[in-house]
């Protein structure tokens, strides 16, 4: 299971600089840039930083327009994480 994080439009609508967000949230500039420079970022889990950014921007992280769940096509038996050693 993966997630598409789509914070770029929300960040642009806020009118705030990445530097301002970085200072207000006490996160690294690279973390902010990662999520607001691209239209969407695919991740394996929703980090506390992403949830904090959503809260900061005043959006609900559970909104599919912000974070979309991506269903993997492979079945459990095909997953390398579940393969016998």
List keywords for this structure.
85 residues, alpha+beta, 434 Repressor (Amino-terminal Domain), three-stranded antiparallel β-sheet, 3 strands, globular
Can you describe this structure?
Strands 2-1-3 form a 3-stranded antiparallel beta sheet, with no helix packed on it. The protein has 85 residues and is of the alpha+beta class. It has 4 helices and 3 strands. It has a single domain (2-73), classed as 434 Repressor (Amino-terminal Domain) (Orthogonal Bundle). The model has no long low-confidence stretch (mean pLDDT 89).
Which structural category fits the helices and strands?
alpha+beta
Reported for the largest beta sheet, the result is:
3 strands, antiparallel
Strand order in space, largest sheet: 2-1-3
Outline the low-pLDDT stretches.
none
Q: Treating each run of at least 4 consecutive H or I residues as one helix, how many helices? A: 4
């Amino acid at each position: 299971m993966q997630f598409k994080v789509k914070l770029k439009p929300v960040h642009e609508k806020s009118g705030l600089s990445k530097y301002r967000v970085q200072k207000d949230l006490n996160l690294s500039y690279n973390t902010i840039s990662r999520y607001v420079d691209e239209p969407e970022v695919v991740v394996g889990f929703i980090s506390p930083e992403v949830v904090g950014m959503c809260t900061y921007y005043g959006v609900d992280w559970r909104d599919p327009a912000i974070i979309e769940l991506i269903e993997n096509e492979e079945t459990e038996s095909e997953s390398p994480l579940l393969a016998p050693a």
